[in-house]
Design goal:
The chain has a single domain (6-289), classed as Divalent-metal-dependent TIM barrel enzymes (TIM Barrel), CATH 3.20.20. It is globular and about 45 Å long. α10 (207-214) packs parallel to α11 and α11 crosses α12 (270-289). It has 291 residues and is an alpha/beta fold. A hairpin with a 5-residue loop joins β8 (225-226) and β9. It is built from 12 helices and 10 strands. The N and C termini lie far apart (38 Å).
């Protein structure tokens, strides 16, 4: 295909991206959504802001209309990547947060497995490298049985991931040692982790402990801020300890990506808000890159 492995050919050390939809006015759709009405325009906006990457969202709502689901949509994504130079390295599978692999009937679990396999193939076709499975909020693990079902379900997809050169990862609300133990249950330690600074601060975890415990398992870092026990706020105004976080990332010699998933500003000011966040993040990244 025209854009085959575009993302994988480039040196993406410490690439800086943004979650899809953050460059589109929400118009009452909430903080995170797939922008069906203008997802294409986000490539040009991201390029103008100097961003390397857009993390695509694959959600349950209207998923069959998501461009990742159709050959035509995949071709359109390829064309936009080639035109803008903005990659899609990571895909956030919010579909599996709305409809987890567990707490559902077996036929639904099997359908989820097939959906994930198809998403993996689409991810490979656009040059992505990572498909993320959220296990938090509605999909938070409550029991050992649920954990076993999750491990079985993702393991069933690992051969598809390997053959398509895609990494599977999880984003979880588990404390670091429990999360590490979960990751070790997958054969060959093939499932990685997405670290989220906002989820961490909202739950009161120590970011240095988290990243030094998880180490090389971390493939992507969502950058946001939350108040302890509360919601998402502008970077630097919540409980996230970015000094501790980046000290930990230096310690493990982190080589992965950063994805802005921070609080929204005023409708229509998405680029300005994003630029403010990039300025906030810049000295931390400079310190990491010079380490």
């Amino acid at each position: 295909m025209e854009a085959e492995r575009v993302g994988k050919k480039m040196n993406k050390k410490h690439s800086t991206g943004i979650m899809q939809g953050r460059l589109t006015p929400p118009k009452g759709r909430g903080i995170q959504f797939f922008p069906f009405d203008g997802w294409q325009s986000e490539f040009e906006k991201a390029q103008g802001l100097g961003l390397n990457d857009i993390e695509f969202i694959f959600d349950l709502d209207q998923y069959e209309s998501n461009p990742l689901w159709t050959d035509g949509g995949v071709s359109e994504i390829q064309s936009l990547i080639n035109k803008s130079g903005v990659l899609v390295n990571n895909i956030c599978g919010d579909f599996f947060m709305r409809r987890p692999f567990f707490r559902v009937e077996e036929n639904v679990r099997k359908e989820n497995v097939e959906v994930l396999k198809k998403l993996i193939v689409s991810a490979s076709n656009i040059g992505a490298r990572n498909v993320e499975i959220p296990i938090l909020d509605n999909s938070s693990l409550k029991t050992k049985e649920e954990e076993d079902i999750l491990v079985r379900s993702l393991t069933e997809c690992l051969e598809t991931a390997r053959s398509n050169n895609i990494i599977l990862s999880v984003e979880a609300d588990l404390p670091p040692v429990k999360l590490l133990n979960l990751l070790k249950k997958f054969p060959g330690h093939q499932v990685k982790v997405v670290y989220d600074s906002g989820n961490s601060s909202g739950l009161g975890y120590d970011p240095y402990e988290e990243v030094t415990t998880l180490g090389d398992f971390i493939i992507n870092a969502h950058i946001k801020d939350r108040v302890l026990g509360g919601g998402t706020v502008s970077l630097g105004t919540g409980s996230a300890d970015f000094d501790k976080l980046f000290t930990g990332l230096k310690k493990i010699n982190y080589q992965g990506a950063f994805t802005l998933q921070a609080a929204r500003g005023s409708d229509g000011n998405e680029s300005e808000t994003t630029n403010t966040y990039l300025n906030f993040l810049a000295p931390y990244l400079a310190g990491l890159r010079s380490y």
